[in-house]
Amino acid sequence: MKDKLMNLSELADLLEYDDQRSVVKWCKKNKILILHVGKAKYVSSQMIDQYFENKLKGFAEKHYDNPDKIMDAYHADDKATLSEAMEAPITPKVKKQFRTKKERSKTAMDFLNQLKQA
Description:
Number of strands: 3
Helix content: 55-70%
Structural class: mainly alpha
Oligomer: single chain
Number of helices: 7
């Protein structure tokens, strides 16, 4: 049973929180049960895994046309299929959010040219 539980300090490290009170607030916000056993506090590692999986699935559904293929490859730990699926066509709305090439300012280009000449 203990292998299915995660100490609150471990969760704090995972979430990169310094204060356990923040972890408790995060758990309440995301409806994660906190078990009090003596002085120690635990959460179900399965609930934490499910939370992150739901986040990944939500991201895949929002940004990709083939979220089921992405999730299947993720669960099968098939990195080749996952990377192939992640390069699948993205919806037009998402394409607008990301620029493909950053333009450099004239000052930056002048500086790079001076470095090349030196």
